[in-house]
């Protein structure tokens, strides 16, 4: 996981309003407004209220944003909290990742804890010990691998559907794999795990399970296969 190489004497960077700045190594980065940063950023903490575009990669010990954050490279931070939209052209890596809004990641996602309330778009793999997704829009990802994987409708999804730009909440994936898997509103080719529960409104081509399997009557599973633990 990320460990900064910053020296203690490095300065803070504080940006307010509409502005541009060069990348570099900093102690703390604070943004309020609409900002473009040219180049990679390496810092202890990165906090943004507004819109920030980073023309490079971003590494930080802690990241908190409210608004929109776009990173043309990869984003790596031990603790990530995003309220708004996150757009990463590279990979997303963190120990604790919390996102309330929209998340688009071109490459893969790696973390210990991944919590999302909103929508997710990624062509790569999401790999985390605990994956907790609460759907508020249409999501699509190549593969999900975790210890515990939970995909559910967010409690407020019915209100969100009144918004004209929102699609019906569902997750589309090629493969979902975990020791414990619970899915709602999910379309997948293969679901593989120990204990697998297919909740309501799912369409699954193949379920492979080792310990137990339960299917809601409102879901469709084309084929299920039990595999021995040994």
Walkthrough of the structure:
This protein has one helix at residues 157-160, and strands spanning 13-25, 28-55, 58-71, 75-88, 92-105, 109-135, 138-153, 170-183, 186-198, 203-215, 220-226. With 230 residues, it is an all-beta fold. It has a domain at 13-169.
Chart the SSEs and their pairings.
Layout: E1 13-25, E2 28-55, E3 58-71, E4 75-88, E5 92-105, E6 109-135, E7 138-153, H1 157-160, E8 170-183, E9 186-198, E10 203-215, E11 220-226
Parallel strand pairs: 1-2, 2-3, 3-4, 4-5, 5-6, 6-7, 7-8, 8-9, 9-10, 10-11
Distance between the termini: 34 Å
| Poorly predicted runs | 161-165
Which structural class best describes the helix and strand composition? mainly beta
On the 0 to 100 scale, the average pLDDT is 92
What are the main properties of this structure?
single chain, 230 residues, mainly beta, 11-stranded parallel beta sheet, 1 helix, 11 strands, 2% helix, 75% strand, elongated, DUF342 domain-containing protein
Short recap of the structure:
By secondary structure, the chain is mainly beta. It is 2% helix and 75% strand.
């Amino acid at each position: 996981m990320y460990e900064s190489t910053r020296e203690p004497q490095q300065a803070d960077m504080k940006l307010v309003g509409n502005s541009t700045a060069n990348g570099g190594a900093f102690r703390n980065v604070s943004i309020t407004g609409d900002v473009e940063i040219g180049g990679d950023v390496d810092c202890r903490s990165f906090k943004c209220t507004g819109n920030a575009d980073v023309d490079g990669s971003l590494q930080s010990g802690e990241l908190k944003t409210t608004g929109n954050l776009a990173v043309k490279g990869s984003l790596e931070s031990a603790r990530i909290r995003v309220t708004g939209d996150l757009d990463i052209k590279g990979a997303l890596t963190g120990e604790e990742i919390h996102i309330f809004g929209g998340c688009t990641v071109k490459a893969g996602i790696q973390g210990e804890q991944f919590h999302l309330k909103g929508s997710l778009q990624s062509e790569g793999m999401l790999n985390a010990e605990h994956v907790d997704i609460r759907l508020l829009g249409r999501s699509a990802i190549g593969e999900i691998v975790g210890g515990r994987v939970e995909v559910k409708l967010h409690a407020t999804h019915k209100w969100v559907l009144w918004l004209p730009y929102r699609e019906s909440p569902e997750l589309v994936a090629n493969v979902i794999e975990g020791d414990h898997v619970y899915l709602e509103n999910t379309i997948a080719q293969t679901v593989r795990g120990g204990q697998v529960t297919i909740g309501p409104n799912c369409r699954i081509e193949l379920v492979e399970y080792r310990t137990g399997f339960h299917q809601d009557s409102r879901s469709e599973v084309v084929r299920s296969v039990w595999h021995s633990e040994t």
